[in-house]
Amino acid sequence: MKTTLAHDERIANMVFASVYPHYINKVEKKGRTKDDLHKVITWLTGFDDCKLQELIDEKVTFKTFFAVAKLNPNAHLIKGVICGYKIEEIETPLTKKVRYLDKLVDELAKGKAMEKILRK
Length: 120
Fold this sequence. Notes:
InterPro entries: SP1917_dom_sf, UCP033199. This is DUF2200 domain-containing protein. By secondary structure, the protein is mainly α. It has helices at 5-13, 16-29, 34-45, 49-57, 62-68, 93-109, 114-117, and strands at residues 81-82, 85-86. It is globular. The protein has a single domain (5-117), classed as uncharacterized protein sp1917 domain (Helicase, Ruva Protein, domain 3, Orthogonal Bundle), CATH 1.10.8.
């Protein structure tokens, strides 16, 4: 599936802080913790807890969030379908990065082992 320009722009302009509480709720409902979520975010982006909180407080968009992130070199190993899109077929780099994060959160919520989520 190919994403549309409107879809990509909507994702780029979403404020990370508006989505973050949904990530927390999703993983906590399934018995995982905020610390688990932060491990996943840190693995993908390189952000420590302080930097993550700073970006949340600044209400940065996903565009800015991923512009300052240092993407994990193994992020390309994240595969599968999320929100109806096959990750490996997404052509827009930013949209792909956001879907990487969505997929990791999804795997965490589904109870997948942390070693597998972090592609070790």
